Amino acid sequence: MAMVVAQQHRESSSGCIDKHLAAGGKYVRYTAEQIEALERVYAECPKPSSLRRQQLIRECPILANIEPKQIKVWFQNRRCREKQRKESCQLQTVNRKLTAMNKLLMEENDRLQKQVSQLVCENGYMRQQLHSASAATTDASSDSAATTPQHSLRDANNPAGLLSIAEETLAEFLAKATGTAVDWVQMPGMKPGPDSVGIFAISHSCSGVAARACGLVSLEPTKIAEILKDRSSWFRDCRSLEVFTMFPAGNGGTIELVYTQIYAPTALAPARDFWTLRYTTNLDNGSLVVCERSLSGSGAGPNPAAASQFVRAEMLPSGYLVRPCEGGGSIIHIVDHLNFEAWSVPEVLRPFYESSKVVAQKMTIASLRYIRQIAQETSGEVVYGMGRQPAVLRTFSQRLSRGFNDAVNGFNDDGWSIMNCDGTEDVIVAVNSTKSLGLTSSHSNSLPLLGGILCAKASMLLQNVSPAVLIRLLREHRSEWADFNIDAYSASALKASSFAYPGMRPMRFTGGNPIIIPLGHTIEHEEMLEVIRLEGHSLAQEDAFVSRDIHLLQICSGIDEKAVGACSELVFAPIDEMFPDDAPLLPSGFRISPLDTKPGDTRDTLTAHRTLDLTSSLEVGPAMNSASGDASSSYNGRSVLTIAFQFPFENSLLDNIAAMARQYVRSVISSVQRVAMAISPSGLSPTVGPKLSPGSPEALTLAHWICQSYSYHLGTELLRSDSMGGDIVLKHLWHHPDAILCCSLKSLPVFIFANQAGLDMLETTLVALQDITLDKIFDDSGRKALYSDFAKIMQQGFVCLPAGICMSTMGRHISYEQAIAWKVLTAEQNTVHCLAFSFMNWSFV
């Protein structure tokens, strides 16, 4: 009997599924019909309840001789085998990845050993030179050993010269991809492993900026090369790529002359272009190589006039090495080595153009991720929402990104022109009369009679604010900064009916944050595509039961705080609720570009824990440099925030739309500053004091004067007595619930300071505050009351104004229960610096 049980145990362990251990220790043999019935139930419910098992016995006569407990054991064993099968498949997948990663790591280890050997040889050689008799010979030999040989120019005007350049480019590229031509260090935060996309490295010290990636991709080499050569499909900053000349090389390869334009990340810097030679060939070991480098000469492209808007950058030998892998797939090596000519941008922006981490994130890592995304989509591993094909959703993401880049850069050859700008505006307004939603799509609901597109854009410098956290807050708390009526106006351009300024119809939007409907995401969730639904209803009686929801198509990227050097973006555009594939898009949004400041570098370092308007910091010059002395010499996390909003317009409403757009962007800036202040480590306002009037004191000094003068004139404290010491007075004044504003004593008084409540009441920013005169915020009765009491203010030092109505910069009426005006005296109390106002219990009417 024992032998029979042992034999049955061996049969069960060898994979038989028709024998199961019953409660009494005996095996139960199931017939094929019984197994088929049980499998049908398992497919519907892998873990049936006791009642369901009893019902199964009653409904299936063939299971009548099986006890319920035996059926329970069958389902337990069935689930166990399913789990083992899945784990086995996962282990096989992980094993393949580990094998490939091990091979890459071994190659990397070999490269590092070669580099160590080379450094040891160079070290020994230099020691010998130091002991030589001639100091001059020593210097010359040391220089020759330490200097990298420069590229000797070849004749690029004939095929033979181009082939010579191509061969030299190939050799230099291979030395970077698999050799020791560049001192590579591991990319911060990108450790290799079975779940990582690949192995990433950046240059430690070389001319220009460089990054390298190695990874395993389940695509054939020719397919990978085809994808990577189409740079505009995966490189979001690529505006255009045009192949001017292509001819075969003698060894079976091809040589191409390529002109490429790439966008600038912000409106404060010019875009870049490249004139390059691209060489595609096969190596003797079966590897496919695509390498590229810049050529000397103009190579201005198809439109020399348009090329004048670009700064010619240099591409040092770069490219892709793709090797077929045993068992399918390919191992790819990517090298990007560039010189962006950082001298052509403001000094505060140069760290962005001198950072290898930024190149790694925007180009090297992005290309490898894109290839792996295509590979997973091809294998059917990626599932997207709303039944859309992956290619369609990728096109939407590319169109959103491209439309936003076009708006930020505003190229003349696209029809953009600056509107009434004297160079001192904080918000730049550009107009494109050649572009309208009616011309961008064949969609039947587009408007063919629009005058064009208007874009209001601005840039800010963020200090000690995490780009990923800020973008995530802007995405998740849209109601904190967005005006839904402005969204309604932009969305109305997609409707067949006409619209009017500022909105198509009176709307009421429900409270809370909008509904986010995910569409798709990349393999590492570094970019998400989603639809935003804003719920609204018409206030008109005849449309009371008609839904007026607004839908926005949105991409969000760069929300991983560990991604060093990554840009964070939130770009959105109104879209028709039918969500057609050819829907016209008018993207707006935010981009935060990190500035990789080197430790110990205090150049352009602004006062710690502040968020400043970037254009103001560039204008201040030497005066602001004095503040940098107090800044910490350690690394300060800085970044550039670029904001761009696009609006359609009719020609008759251009001026009104421009004014609305400028004020709306200013209100968005104010809201973003408030959010940045909340997440800033200092807890202080990051925006206080960026742009005061000439001769005005620093914000901290002015805050002390305001509080001391209030106490002197009214005999009571504006702030608590424990809030008057040191820097804390500025913090408490900034967060005071009453709207506190200061205006200058001029023939036409203008505001020079406001706390957060004051900015919210006026619906403006500190940057735009000086453009607002005192008389603009009061109505006729308010102005008369103020003028009649002006002499009393100057004589008595203060005056209490009765309840009244004032007006914000957006034209909204504001009621307040009481207002106090008082003179702000300097520390010596012998000079009147300005007038201060405090509006109590204010609210929008």
TrEMBL record:
Residues 31-86 bind DNA. Pfam families: Homeodomain, MEKHLA, START. Residues 29-85 form the Homeobox domain. Residues 155-383 form the START domain. GO terms for biological process: cell differentiation. Residues 95-122 form a coiled coil. One of its GO terms (cellular component) is nucleus. InterPro entries: HD (IPR001356), HD-Zip_III (IPR044830), Homeodomain-like_sf (IPR009057), MEKHLA (IPR013978), START-like_dom_sf (IPR023393), START_lipid-bd_dom (IPR002913). GO terms for molecular function: DNA binding; DNA-binding transcription factor activity; lipid binding. Keywords: Coiled coil, Differentiation, DNA-binding, Homeobox, Nucleus, Transcription, Transcription regulation. It is found in: Nucleus. Residues 132-154 are annotated as: Disordered. Residues 132-148 have a biased composition (Low complexity). CDD domains: bZIP, homeodomain, START_ArGLABRA2_like. It comes from the Eukaryota. Gene3D superfamilies: 3.30.530.20, Homeodomain-like. Belongs to the HD-ZIP homeobox family. Class III subfamily. PANTHER family: HOMEOBOX-LEUCINE ZIPPER PROTEIN ATHB-14 (PTHR45950), HOMEOBOX-LEUCINE ZIPPER PROTEIN REVOLUTA (PTHR45950:SF10). This is Homeobox-leucine zipper protein like.
